[in-house]
Amino acid sequence: MAELATLPRLLLRNARELRTRAAIREKDRGIWQSYSWEDYHAQVRDFALGLAALGFKRGDRLSVIGDNRPRLYWAQVAAQCLGGVSVPVYQDSIAKELAFVWNHADVSVIVAEDQEQIDKVLGLREQLSTLRYVIYDDPRGMLHYKHDWLKSFADVQALGREFGKTHGGYFDAAIEQGKADDLAFVCYTSGTTGNPKGAMISHANALETAKMAMSAEEFRVDDDYLAYLPMAWVGDAFYTLVMSLVVGFACNCPESPETVQRDLRELGPTLILAPPRIWENMLTAVQVKGADAPPLKRWVFDRFRGAAERAEILRSEGKPIPLGLRLAIALGEFFVYGPVRDQLGLRRARWALTGGAPLGPDTFRFFRSIGVNLKQVYGSTETTGLVSLQPSREANPTTAGRPCPGIEVKIADRGEVLVRSAGVFRGYLKNEEATREVIDPQGWFHTGDAGFIDPRGHLVIIDRAKDVGALADGTPFAPQFVENKLKFSPFIREAVAFGDQKPFVTAMIAIDMSTVGNWAERRSLAYTSYMDLSQKPEVRALIREEIRKCNETLPEAGKVRRFLLLTKDLEADDAEMTRTRKVRRRYVAEKYTPVTDAFYGGRDEVELATTITYEDGRQATLQSRVRVEDVEEAAVRG
Question: Judging by beta carbons within 10 Å of its beta carbon (0-12, 13-18, 19+), is residue 555 exposed, middle or buried?
Answer without folding.
Answer: exposed
